[in-house]
Amino acid sequence: MLESVRVRLALWHTATLALLLAGFAGATYAYLDRSTLARTDHSLKAAVGAFTHEMAAERGDEGSNAVAAREAARDFRLGDTRVMVFDAGLRTLAAGASSARGPMPSPAAV
Fold first, then answer.
1. CA-CA-CA-CA dihedral for 53, 57, 62, 66, to nearest 10
2. What's the pLDDT at 40?
3. Which of 60, 62, 96, 97 could form an SS bridge with 67, CB 3.0 to 4.6 Å?
4. Can you tell me the distance from the alpha carbon of 9 to that of 11, in angstroms, rounded to the nearest whole number?
5. What do you get for the CA distance between the two ends of the chain, in Å?
6. Measured on CA atoms in the order 28, 31, 37, 38, is the torsion positive or negative?
7. pTM of the predicted protein model
8. 47-89, pLDDT tens digit by residue?
9. Which residues are CB-neighbours of 55 under 8 A, at least 6 positions away?
10. Is the backbone of residue 19 left (phi > 0), alpha (psi -120 to 50) or beta?
11. Cα(47)–Cα(63) distance, rounded to whole angstroms?
12. Is residue 24's pLDDT more than 90?
């Protein structure tokens, strides 16, 4: 069966195309994975920077870190990003308003 030149050539082309497609799929996956991770990191850095600025402004007004965290979390708006602030014992110190996406998760879930 493999003595036919036509069959061997068809198998050779099939194997070559399969390797090319697998390589392209792997490269595409690696690129999308890296770009998605970079975009997520950038978005989180922007949210942390904006929340830090908001909390610093509230701390100047309120004086107390706990009260400033509650006020900043309540007032913070950046797209659909919600904020939770935990103390050293992982107790919820402040949480943003819940939205249509449901309630905020517990510290253990985070």
1. 0
2. 92
3. 62
4. 5
5. 60
6. negative
7. 0.62
8. 888 888 888 888 877 667 778 888 888 778 777 777 888 877 7
9. 68, 69, 72
10. alpha
11. 23
12. yes
In this prediction, residue 58 carries a pLDDT of: 81
Alpha carbon separation from 81 to 18, 29, 68 (Å, rounded)? 42, 27, 18
SS3 readout for the chain: CCCCHHHHHHHHHHHHHHHHHHHHHHHHHHHHHHHHHHHHHHHHHHHHHHHHHHHHHHHHHHCCHHHHHHHHHHHCCECCECCEEECCCCCEEEECCCECCECCCCCCCC
Give the count of beta carbons closer than 10 Å to the beta carbon of residue 94: 21
Distance CA 36, CA 34 (A): 6
The closest of 73, 76, 82, 74 to 101, measured between CA atoms, is 82
Interatomic CA distance for residues 70 and 76, integer angstroms: 10
How many C-beta neighbours within 10 Å does residue 95 have? 18
Query: Which are the contacts of 24, defined by CB distance < 8 A and separation ≥ 6?
Result: none
